[in-house]
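Q: Structure tokens for this one, please.
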Amino acid sequence: MRFKESFTFLKRFADAPRRIGSVAPSSKFLTKAMLERVDWENANFIAELGAGTGVFTREIVKRAKPDAKILVFEIDPALQKLIRDEHPEHKGLTLHSDAQELHKYMQENGIEKLDFVISSLPFTVLPPKMTVRILDGVLKSLKPNGHFVAYQYSSIMKHVLKKKFSHIKTRWVAFNIPPAFVYDCWR
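A: Here is the predicted structure, written as tokens:
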């Protein structure tokens, strides 16, 4: 794990635990579980919500087609800087702050619908109205066969996701700090 990345993440968590949601960046095991369902050959439009230090962003950029458009959302300015510094030349990647504005930024980037939305947002600690706005935005933004993949540190969100999506596949990832549930959701 990158020291600067881990240190920045821990510092940002100490400053705003409800906004950051974890004490450490995601492990390679969680990254694999989150991204294994993405059909990279056919994924033209991808959004990442709550990018943190860019652990998933890095892998999305590596795996995505060269012409894919990637919308990355991270509200914390220090974490945005890490992502911006790592991907200064990527033409298809745009960085935004508020995941509640997903659809607005899709329109600004000429994206009608998304193939995949990857989320690291700590829904259980976000205000309930914010969670609803974000999930409704995701539903509005996904293609009919699009997937929403999110991880959480408890199973609390499963009942909320069941109300929004007709299909949910759950996976437990023990090798992460803390261990996490991965939810692959589609309609």
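A few notes: Residues 16-23 have pLDDT under 50 and may be disordered. The chain has one domain: 3-186.
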